[in-house]
Amino acid sequence: MDKLQFDGPVVLAILDGVGLALDGPGNAVSRARTPFLGYASQNYLHVSLDASGEAVGLTPGQMGNSEVGHNTIGSGQIIKQGLARVNEALESGEAFLTDAWRGAILRAAAGGTLHFAGIFSDGGVHSSMAHLEKMIERAYKDGVRKMRVHAIFDGRDVLPQSEPKFIQRFENFAKKFSGADIRIASGGGRMVCVSDRYESDWGMVKAGFDMMVFGKAEYYFKSAEEGILALRAEDPEVQDQNLPPFVVVDEFHAPVGRIERGDALIYFDFRADRAIEIAQAFTYYDFPYFDRSGYTPDEVYFVGMTEYNSDTHVPEHRLVEPIEITEPLNTFLAERGISQFACSETVKFGHVTYYFNGNSYDKAEGEEFCEIDSLSGALEERPWMRAAEITDKVIEALPNYKFVRLNYPNGDMVGHTADIRATETAVEAVDLSLKRIAEKVDELGGVLVIIADHGNAEELIDKDGNKKTSHTTNAVPCIFYDNTTNRGKYEILAGRKGLSNIAATIAMLLGQNDYPEKWQAPIIGMK
């Protein structure tokens, strides 16, 4: 097969959360003014890509997400992971045969309490209530009678004010276990406590740690249901993801379930980015990020649903072993002497580096990373985020690298607010930035491949007219912007395509046709 040769770089622009859907009042992508994307999709080779469900190693019909999306893009493979992998381990009983599970049960048998914490919904992106329920069932069978749950409220992968439904589901479920004491002990929104990512706000983690370990929070209520009702009365518009931390107390105002010395805690998130920091807070002896007020890791037996960092192997105790990704795109290119550059702002930096590179923070030979600090404050007020700054750094890097990849977080991060106008602005900011990059790519004689990792911004209203803050199962775009003499030498190959076809496509554009056999075939072929 002939090889393509570009004088300039091959650029992969990942538009986080920008999917494809019919025009409508909830489609911020179609409603936005995007002259560059409109022109590119009409005048260059393009195809839609599957980015959810089985196409990215998830269960059928499960919406895609940034972690599995970037894993799939960078690995060139469909790897069973996330929800599907944990489902299998719990259904087969494999998770309950681990030393981690036995260790947690032994703590409870010795007089401790078995605690569970994680994102409290059935969204299936970071966690699943079905997993929590299955573990409680097994713990009861194994003789545990006292269990406490620390609920991290979602409102992001599910409807923004749906948490009362999940609390009621849990309360009904807990009644099934005769003689058991199973209660929600604390709660707080995922964007306020515990679930920080990429070390952007350790104060969130401290708020969650204090809530769970010391029973300290902004609010105290007699039940989780009472807490939700009271907080809604204060602010009827507050989304679950932004609910302030609270502790459930008894009639004497004492916390009903602090995590204490001798207890075990199972953190049931399977997605790493919003779990790693709280795992460090419970397990690191050398911990500089906030004062734990005398707490030491030997006090609590911490178990993760899976491994949250494959470089440092945190946590030590886990129910499901991590996936192993070999021969990702970055190492394949490095072995061939191809220089690489990856850039995004903090909120998606780990996706375009760690997840893209097969769950490793290690840089390959000739690979460089550029992180732009994300801004604080409401995304609705600054929906353009750091798109311009990412673009500046990428344009500066383009003459010096053969493969450049970047992630614009705007469509996903602002899309999670379900604010239509703000998300339109977010998409417009990305369009302006893409035009700038395209002009530099033209100048250098390169090619720009535009994709997304999953949908979100294209569907901000559900079929019942409610605000929709979650990802979608929609396909995503793949556009080959190319004004070089190579433009007429290749074509889109027939058949369904997904994110797993991207790695081989990038390799081919870089003239490397000997990509690993395990990779899915490229999207394009020579005419």
What secondary-structure arrangement, pairings included, does this model have?
Blueprint lengths: L9 E6 L12 H4 L3 H9 L1 E5 L16 H10 L6 H11 L6 H11 L4 E6 L9 H13 L4 E8 L9 H12 L6 E9 L12 H13 L4 E3 L2 H11 L11 E3 L15 E4 L8 H8 L17 E6 L11 E3 L8 H7 L4 E6 H10 L11 E6 L14 H11 L5 E6 L1 H6 L4 H25 L2 E5 L24 E7 L7 E3 L9 H8 L14 E3 L1
Parallel strand pairs: 1-13, 1-14, 3-4, 3-8, 4-5, 6-7, 8-9, 9-10, 11-12, 11-13
Antiparallel strand pairs: 2-15, 5-7, 14-15, 16-17
Helix pairs in contact: 3-12, 8-10, 13-15
Protein architecture, described:
By secondary structure, the chain is α/β, with parallel strands linked by helices. It is built from 16 helices and 17 strands. The chain has helices at 28-31, 35-43, 66-75, 82-92, 99-109, 129-141, 163-174, 202-214, 224-234, 276-283, 329-335, 346-355, 387-397, 410-415, 420-444, 502-509; strands at residues 10-15, 45-49, 114-119, 146-153, 181-189, 219-221, 246-248, 264-267, 301-306, 318-320, 340-345, 367-372, 403-408, 447-451, 476-482, 490-492, 524-526. Strands 6-7-5-4-3-8-9-10 form an eight-stranded mixed sheet, sandwiched between helices. A seven-stranded mixed sheet has the order 2-15-14-1-13-11-12, sandwiched between helices. Strand 4, helix 7 (163-174) and strand 5 (181-189) form a beta-alpha-beta unit. Helix 3 (66-75) runs parallel beside helix 12 (346-355). The model has no long low-confidence stretch (mean pLDDT 96).
